[in-house]
Design goal:
4 helices; mainly alpha; about 85% helix; A middle domain of Talin 1
């Protein structure tokens, strides 16, 4: 009975860690798709991409709060929000970069900055994981 209780407590204590690890892996996979030479299925306007900044800002604030509180519920919520926000941002970035009115130079810069944003966010999540 004691072992079952310890195992249940241990599982509950590591739930956030597992969720965060899965999110980090998911974002790495999204980055691989983003970096591939395959063109997006559709294009969107640069304005659609700019709207993604709100989701990234909210996810960043949530990640910082989770790192400060170290509560499992906060970490799980951060993992879920982060996965969605970064995946949406990368998709919108690639779709906007290939909009017909976007020049090759601007396309390359947009793709580079989208990757840098996701890489920076991964570093933030890895820091929360360590904490």
């Amino acid at each position: 009975s004691l072992l079952k209780t310890v195992k249940a407590v241990e599982d509950e204590a590591t739930k956030g860690t597992r969720a965060l690890e899965a999110t980090i892996e998911h974002i790495r996979q999204e980055l691989a798709v983003f970096s591939s030479p395959v063109l997006p299925a559709k294009v969107s306007t640069p304005e659609d991409f700019i709207r993604m900044t709100k989701g990234i800002t909210m996810a960043t604030a949530k990640a910082v709060a989770a790192g400060n509180s170290c509560r499992q519920e906060d970490v799980i919520a951060t993992a879920n929000l982060s996965r969605r926000a970064i995946a949406d941002m990368l998709r919108a970035c690639k779709e906007a970069a290939y909009h017909p009115e976007v020049s090759a130079d601007v396309r390359q810069r947009a793709l580079r900055f989208g990757k840098e944003c996701a890489d920076g966010y991964l570093e933030l999540l890895e820091h929360v994981l360590v904490v």
